[in-house]
Structures are given as C-alpha cells and as structure tokens.
Design brief:
Helix content is 6%, strand content 48%. It has 1 helix and 11 strands. It starts with a strand and ends with a strand.
Length: 127
Amino acid sequence: QLQLVESGGGLVQPGGSLRLSCEGSGFTLHYYTIGWFRQAPGTERREGVSCMGDSGGSTYYAHSAKGRFTISRDDAKKMIYLQMNSLKPEDTGVYYCAAARFMPVQDMCLKEHVTNWGKGTLVTVSS
C-alpha cells in the first residue's frame, strides 16, 4: 500500500527557513512525479507549490515559491523534500506531499492530477 508521510512543519518567524520531508513507502519512488501542495487557512483549494518529474529533470514552481523554495528527491531513500527559505506569513498553511505515476509536472501542479496524498504538515509563519 502506497503511503506518504510528511514531517518538518512548525512555527517559524517571517524570514526564517523550514525543510519539509516526505517519506514514501509501498512503491518505487523513481517512477513517480512528486509534488508539494499548500492549503491556506480557511480555503478548500490546494495550490501546487512545486512539482518534480520522475527523472528529476523537470520542475515547476508556483510564482510565489520561485527563488525561495527548492524541491528535491532521493529515490533510493524514498524521500521527498521541500526547502523553504525567506518565509512569509502568506506561506502559512497545511503542506501536502503528493505523487502520481507518469504524470507531467505541470498537469500535477496546475491541474492537481494527483493519485496519492500524504496527510499534511502544518506550517505557520508568524512573529
């Protein structure tokens, strides 16, 4: 059974950094497009923050994340990461790890074409 489990969320001051991790199990990560989505407080929609193709060669970043966030993967360890720097209050939300097999990067992030979700980890950016 494919599972994704996020960790690394918490409270951080504006300008600070956090590194989110997502551990996969029950599948071969190498074949999957991966991504991070954010659900802001009081909203139902999940925004694709960043996605990465199964080869690691293609990436997508939301405009709000460009230059501040970096997605990465370690297929051997079945780990997915999101390094977040220069955090802003508007980055606050629940961050979900996502995976989908043979999915174009932009389809995952922009159309929310996801087959597997983690349960999320809360990030709060506040002074």
